[in-house]
Amino acid sequence: MDQAWLHQRPHLAPLARSLDAILKLADEQYKQGRAGGDAVDYAEFEERVAHATARIEQDVHQVALSGLDVDVPFIRVWGKH
């Protein structure tokens, strides 16, 4: 990821780290598959992917929610105050 772009958006740093982690996870699995005929525990890999994507989802919500002005007298959820 372009560091200048991220430097201008420091609030996205946790999300960038999570995205980087899942890219590394995919790259490692790719390299392991290309390395030879060794058996692969794909169920374990799927579990790691599930945890990594859940982390991305959490970080997206954290960024989005941190941008909200919650210091207000009321909020509206699904059209209800």
Overview of this structure, please?
By secondary structure, the protein is mostly helical. It has a domain at 13-66. Helix content is 65%, strand content 0%. The protein contains 3 helices and no strands. It has helices spanning 3-7, 13-35, 42-66. The chain is elongated, with a radius of gyration of 18 Å. The chain starts with a helix and ends in a 15-residue tail after the last helix. The model has no long low-confidence stretch (mean pLDDT 89).
Helix-strand blueprint:
Layout: H1 3-7, H2 13-35, H3 42-66
Helix pairs in contact: 2-3
What percentage of the residues does DSSP assign to strands (E)? under 5%
Q: Alpha-carbon distance between the termini? A: 40 Å
SS field, number of helical segments = 3
- Main sheet overview: none
Structural class assignment: mainly alpha
For the structure shown, list the relevant keywords:
81 residues; mainly alpha; 3 helices
In a few lines, what is going on in this structure?
The chain is mainly α and 81 residues long. The protein has helices spanning 3-7, 13-35, 42-66. It has a domain at 13-66.
